[in-house]
Structures are given as structure tokens and as C-alpha cells.
Amino acid sequence: MKGSILFGMLMIFLLVMACPEAGENLAEGETGEALARRYCSNCHQFPAPTLLDRTTWQQEILPKMGYMMGMRQLYDSMAHHFTEEQLGTQLIDQTEIFPRETTISPEAWQKIRQFYLDQAPAQLDTAGRPPITSPLDIFSVRLPEERFSPPGTSLIQIMEGGKIMMGDIHQGLLLQYDRDLHLLKSAPVGTGAVHLNPTEEGLWLTVMGNFLASDQAEGYLVFYPRDKQLPPTRPVTGLKRPVHTALGDLNQDGQTDILICEFGKWNGQLSWWEAGGDGYRPHILSGPSAPMRAYIEDLNGDGRPDIIALFGQGREGIRAFYQEEAGQFREEELIALHPAMGSSFFNLRDVDGDGDLDILYTAGDNADYRPIRKPYQGIYLYLNENGSFRQEFFYPLYGAYRVAAEDFDQDGDLDLAAISFFPDYRNQPEASFVYLENQGDYQFSASTFQDAARERWISMDVGDLDADGDLDIVLGALAFEIPDAELQHFQEAWLRNGIPFLVLENQLDQAFPTTKLHN
């Protein structure tokens, strides 16, 4: 979706103008590669030409980059990517993220452009997709009676007591279902309910304000007290498209602070909001940036809570903010990712059982230009080795959007469940959902349920919905256009079916204690 959860490759050169080398005079005789490395690797990983096919560079990326580097008249056709409804370029001009005048000579730009076009492949190598079998015997499919056309499930979470909470972007509703998938109640919450944090005192709801990427400060948090005599409140407002929230006592003063990922569009930020007697006071940790998900954990074992966050857009990667003293943090990059990855999700889990937190990560966003099959997108596992993270495992999955690691079959090891929002609908639509059963030594067998592409899955959660001792899975659907005319039958089916969510009910007979990943 254009400008949706990620706005990745539009940001390849986002911070070029802020980099110290960007304004230097060019040495005569520099090659296109040398110039590209000079301009394009100061603020993020150098984007190699081989990351994308030649057509995508020529028609999508390079024109947008030219606009970002001040060549607005030359690339005027790209202007709509940088405007806000009713505001035009006002917000990016106010923050001076992009220059209004060119910052590079025509000769240098032409060399860079030609370097990418000469070196980019005609097509990416997409051979070697692992097979996915069907049926998925361990789970049975259950559907609610309600239909939404089009389905727009921005939030799906399994709650305690066998409840499912669902957010719908089109109607601006938060809906509650029981374990039998009957609708219990609904409430208007505004556009883009995206995340829930349950606490002993009540329920915190994160509302984006704009489902599509935007820097307009229309997002907010809603608090629903458990005491039904008390009305809901909005403790934090004026947020730039918040997409994830974590709660914890960050400065260790006995009060619960809030960690908020404001993805925004071009000018998002990661900040923690300090609880006080008169409300919450923000402290910016990283901005402008595009935080997508963040957790509060003592990552280095020093007794102080740290922050671990995933960032999208140009400087993609996973970073830690280690707490040095109360409320003071030191930023450190844990995993650097190139700007074409399409980061979509990460989670923390002790996968190898050595007592520290490892990282499960998915790359799969493919919304910022004509969707292409990227061989480097899929599920990654990074093992924690004394604070450094080493890639141990990769499962290729185009468009991977979520992953959960749990012992679904209760055989003593962790299996994986994943969804793809951008699968290869032409050749492998069944990859919309994949269950990876652990065979040992990081080998997995892949299976899925029948007609897995009956909807387009954008969200997923795991929990024991029916309280029978095993873990169930719920998938949330969002019908979004497919630009390929030959694949329109998928889109037509999504609208016709109108399925807002689907439950995969675990069919195991025996019950063992289970754990749950971070929300």
C-alpha cells in the first residue's frame, strides 16, 4: 500500500543533505560508483545496484531521489509522493528535510544515475523458493459471521478471557468478539486503531489518526479504565502516525512511562513519555526517523531497562538504546539493514535457550513502487552472542509481514508461524500464511491451510483463545489493490468474501504450559 506501514525505498537518500560530505566539491574524474558511495552511504548502508531491477531504478527510485536532492522541476512528476492532503509540501519544507534547490551538479547526478542503470540486473534472481504443502492438519479454520467489504483490519489481538479485539480502519471502530467469534460490542475510536496494551488499571489503545503515511499530528493514545464508572481519556495526543506503544518504568521512579513509535511519513520519531503528576512529558530518542516497533527490556543485564527498536525507511535497522542513568540513553546499532529490505516486524525471544533475548525479524514491505519479488525478503533469526547479534537462520518469504515463534505442536521446540502481505500471487499464493514446523537444527517443514489467499493478511496474533492449553492463531485481513491486471481475481475475491479475520484453532489434545511473545 502506497505510504502504508513502510515508506522504505523512498528514503534511500533522505539524509544526504545533512551528511557532511554532501556539499563538498566533486573531484574531476570520479566514477559513478565513487560518487554514489560518496552521496549514498554516509547516513545509511550503500544501496547496491543489484538490490533492485533496472526498471525499478529507472522508473521509480532514481526520479524520487532526484526530487529529494532538490531537482524538483526536473522530476516534477514525483511531487505527489512528497505532499500532504491540503498542505502540499508545507510540512517537509518547514522541517527542511529536502532542499528546494539542487545539491548536486548535473554531471555528477548523471554519473550516479548511469551507474545504477548500467549495474542493475534486468531481473532479480528469484529461484529456489521452498515448497509449501497443504493441508495444515494441526489447525482448523474458523470464521466470524460478520463481513466487511472491504475488510480493513488494522488491529487484531487475542486478549485474556477468550476475547478478540479488532480495529477496522474504514469504519473507525474497535470491535470485541468472544471465543466463539460472536460480536459482543463495538466503539468508535477514529482512524487506524493499531495496537493494544492491557494493564491492571485498564487498556491502552494506539490510534494512528492516518492509516496512510502522514506527518500530520493526528494520532493519539486512548486509555480505557477497568473501572467502568470512569470514562475513557486521551492521555497523549498530537502524535505523527503512531504505530506501536510499549509501557514500563523507564526512569525507575515508580511510575509507568510510555514508549511511542511515531512512524509519520518523513518526520517520525521514537520518544519516551515520562509520567508525572500533570501528565506525560516527551523525550525524543531518535528523530527524524521511522520507528515501527519497540520494546522495553534489560538487554545488557545491568538492572536498568533498555529500549530495542526497529526502524524503517532509509536507515533501516534494529537499534538499542542502553540506559546509562535514570532516563539517559546511549544509542547503539545492533543490526544494520540496507534501504531496500522493507522491514516489517521484529520480536524478542530466547530462541536458543541460553538465557538471553534473540531477535526474530521480517522483511517484506513492497508497497512503495511496483511490487517486485525480492530474494532477500523473508524471516530472519539473529542470535544474541554477548550483546552482538549474528544471523543464524533465513527463510525466504516474499512480503513477510509478521512472525511468531511458539511450540505450537508441543513437542519441545519452537515452531514458526508467518504471514505475507506481498506473496507471489502468480506462482505461490499459498505463501500468504506459512506454518514452519521445527525439524531440529533450524530445519523446518512448511505447510499452510487450504485457500490461504482467500484474504490478504496484514496482522497476526497468537494466544490460547479457547483456553484448552494450546496456542491458536488469529489473522487480520486488509483488502488492498493488486496492480497486475491478470491477478485481479484475488482482489475481487477479497472484496466479495469480506472476511475481517480468521482463526486457526489448534487441534492438539494434550495441554502444556505456554508463553507469549511481546505484543
Structural notes for this entry:
The protein has 519 residues and is mainly beta. The protein contains 5 helices and 28 strands. It has 2 domains: 9-119, no CATH class; 139-506, YVTN repeat-like/Quinoprotein amine dehydrogenase (Methylamine Dehydrogenase, Chain H), CATH 2.130.10. Helices cover 10% and strands 36% of the residues. The strands form 7 sheets. It has a 4-stranded antiparallel β-sheet with strand order 1-28-27-26, with no helix packed on it. The chain has a 4-stranded antiparallel β-sheet with strand order 2-3-4-5, with no helix packed on it. The model is unreliable at 1-25 and 510-517 (pLDDT under 50).
Short précis:
The protein is mainly beta.
CATH class of the largest domain: Mainly Beta
Low-pLDDT regions: 1-25, 510-517
On the 0 to 100 scale, the average pLDDT is 91
Gross CATH architecture of the largest domain:
7 Propeller
N- and C-termini, Cα separation: 23 Å
Give the full name of the CATH homologous superfamily of the largest domain: YVTN repeat-like/Quinoprotein amine dehydrogenase
Alpha plus pi helix count: 5
Q: CATH topology of the largest domain, which one?
A: Methylamine Dehydrogenase, Chain H
The tally of structural domains comes to: 2
Question: Biggest sheet, strands in spatial order?
Answer: 1-28-27-26
Fraction in beta strands: 35-45%
Rg for CA atoms: 23 Å
* Class by SSE composition: mainly beta
What overall form do the CA principal axes indicate?
globular
Biggest sheet, in brief?
Answer: 4 strands, antiparallel
Number of strands: 28
Q: Helix amount, in percent? A: 10-25%
